[in-house]
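Weekly structure sync, notes
Attendees: PL (lead), two postdocs, one rotation student
Agenda item 3: pending single-chain targets
PL asked that the sequence for the first pending target be pasted directly into the notes so everyone works from the same version. It is reproduced below exactly as submitted, 56 residues in total.
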Amino acid sequence: IIVMLKALPRDTLVDIFSKTLIENDVSPLTDKEKASYTKALKEYEKGQVTSWEDLK
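Predicted structure, written out during the meeting:
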């Protein structure tokens, strides 16, 4: 499955992860999840990200 996912275009991967991880979980975020999300946004704004291509 991982090999198949790595071969997909980025837009398709984002759509898959969005539908499986985000759209299906409607529960409120916990304090830990909120803190993790806030930290991730700050890292993203600073450009501290790992591109999908680097993971292949």
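Discussion points:
- Helices lie at 2-7, 10-22, 31-45, 52-55.
- The chain has one domain: 2-55.
Action: rotation student to compare against the earlier draft before next sync.
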